[in-house]
């Protein structure tokens, strides 16, 4: 993750860059999740953090986390 023009972005590097050559812009919640992933947090911990920070229900938080992680995995930016 890097800050570019005041925005946090993630770009693929190494082998991942062969399959994905775009940029993923991170909003505030995605930045929080990214930082947690850097510390090897589980998806369940990510869900808990979303619930606590944004006061949303479990299903909404779980769906949001799942979509975010799936997007990163699809881009080859994070491993399974």
Structure, described:
- This protein is of the alpha+beta class.
- Helix content is 55%, strand content 15%.
- It contains four helices and three strands, in the order ββαβααα.
- A three-stranded antiparallel beta sheet has the order 1-2-3.
- A hairpin with a 2-residue loop joins strand 1 and strand 2.
- The radius of gyration is 13 Å and the shape is globular.
In short:
55% of the residues lie in helices and 15% in strands.
Please outline the helices and strands.
Layout: E1 2-4, E2 7-11, H1 16-19, E3 23-26, H2 28-38, H3 43-54, H4 58-74
Antiparallel strand pairs: 1-2, 2-3
Helix pairs in contact: 2-3, 3-4
**Main β-sheet, in a few words?**
3 strands, antiparallel
Unreliably modeled segments: none
- What is the helix content? 55-70%
The fraction of residues in strands falls at 15-25%
How many β strands by DSSP?
A: 3
Number of helices: 4
Descriptive tags:
alpha+beta; 4 helices; 3-stranded antiparallel beta sheet; 80 residues; 3 strands
